[in-house]
Amino acid sequence: MINPRLEPMFHASAPSPAFEHIGEPQRFEGPRAEISRDRDLVWWRRIMPVLKSHRVTFIGAITFSFVSLIFQTLVPKILMSAIDRLTPGNHQPIHGIVVAVLIIGLFAGVAGYLSRRFLFTTAYNVESDLRNLMYEHLTWLSFGFYDRVQSGQLISRANSDIRSVQMYFTFAPQIIVQCGIGVIAFGFMLSINVTLALIAMITMPIMYVVGIKMRQVMFPISWIIQARLADVAAIVDENINGVRVVKSFAQEAGEINRLADASEKVAWAYTKDADIRGQWAPWVQNLPQLGLALVLFFGGWMVTLGHAPIGAIVAFNAYLLMLQAPFMMLGQLVMMGQRARASAERIFEILDEQPDITERPGSIDLLDVQGEVVFNHVRFGYGDGADILHDFHATIKAGESVALVGRTGSGKSTVARLVARFYDVRDGSIQIDGHDVRDVTLPSLRANVGLVLDEPFLFSVSIRENIAYGRADANLDEIISAAKAANAHEFIEQLPEGYDTVVGERGYTLSGGQRQRIAIARTLLVNPPILILDDATSAIDVHVEAEIHDALESLLEHRTTLVIAHRISTIALADRVILLEEGRVVAEGTHEELLASVPLYAEVLAQTTSESL
Ligand SMILES: Nc1ncnc2c1ncn2[C@@H]1O[C@H](COP(=O)(O)OP(=O)(O)O)[C@@H](O)[C@H]1O
Ligand SMILES: [Mg+2]
After folding, report:
1. Could you read off the pLDDT of 4-37 as tens digits, one per residue?
2. 285 part of a folded domain
């Protein structure tokens, strides 16, 4: 929305030849399905809609996996018939059988490839959908949520939780299909020899129990490993981000010790893990031999008695090998299911969180804003906390510029956040041109209220993209005039790559004042009729501030402005000053009036000015 009164300021010099789109078109289509909103469903049924949206690949995966295993179960039986033809003196050719085995092997291989291919496609799509759902939801959540949770930890945990759910969805169908095949193999065994089939199956329940037991002992240690790896990661992260503090206090040695301790703990956990694996490996490896021995013993006996063909022993051995893995994994599946459930529940915790700030039904777009802002007896506090603002009452006329002055913690930033409706008031209301901010659509509200925060956050992209963040369609001329208005143009020009210089964490490091000027330019480009500068000039040094004074002055002239500032020079630009003390308006008037008549004002100014220096 362009405010007509501001047109001359950002008048882009006709259609510019330098015009270039720098905003990427939005390609994100979003996941095809959401999780079920019904909280009473079992966890996997809540995720089912997401899986169902990938049913084509999923069913493909299951089908091919089944086909591949069917082929594999055919082989032992064919092998048996081949061996039975090979009795001395019997000269039946077996070339056909050899070819058949090769062809079946080929088909089984192709089907196996396709099943894996489809299964992993499904699994990673489900993972990606869950992640997108989660991030999409996180962006919807209100500031109140981010005040409550440690967002960084939440996101990294969410990632590993999504992974564990994904793994279960990959693993479970495979095991279930394999167990289904087990039934078929068992059928084949029964058709060859019932007694021998039953004997061969004796070890299966043992395999199942071993699978469960092994998981039970491995489980705690795998959690410990995860937690300790996270500790190490946290220390490394702190040391990289806090490297200046570490070095300036010469604490390198201490930090190295801390890291050494943590990695020693990781090593201990991994050793323990290897030890447990070592103890279980003989069981896992030799249990199948027990089965084979049983088959050999009883089968051999039966063969000598003529109750079973000799090929049966070979076939049974092959079937046993085929069966043991799924039985053992069936036990593991139970444990993995428990883990996936715990993970899914943590994912649901976030997805079920409702944003506190929502649009009322029938909200209207805030259009043609003149810029009158009224705080109507506002009472507010964060979360369940005590009231921060008490009966805050003030009117800012359209086009007026007002300075909000008060001690640290008096609630100035809180007032700023309420205008953009980052939070809702507890009592009273905030009106823009007579519209309660709760009755207008959020995008239209935020397009009209420009907020420059005291800690400007820049993205790790070029400066021009940072400035164009709120208006990706802006052309370079517009970006440059916004930068000029914020007095940022000159220093940007001097950077090695000018407007294309990449800033942010990994890019070129700008000073606090430079970042702040880019943040101001970013807001100015959107050209909002209501502008709030929350300590936006505090990091800009006095000398530079004097330089941008003219720019600031013209900014304030053209729109409704709320400036939160410490410096008398900035405050003096405003038409009027509101003095805030512990969430209450204690005085209003021009700078000179307050200076002359309100002792607290002079006191606060003296204090905040010395704090900011
Ligand atoms: N996100 C928040 N959650 C809870 N309390 C907060 C939050 N932000 C600020 N506060 C509290 O609200 C009070 C006013 O803070 P603020 O508006 O930032 O003051 P100012 O900007 O005047 O320094 C302070 O006591 C502060 O601790
Ligand atoms: Mg503040």
Report:
1. 443 434 433 333 333 334 444 455 567 888 888 8
2. yes
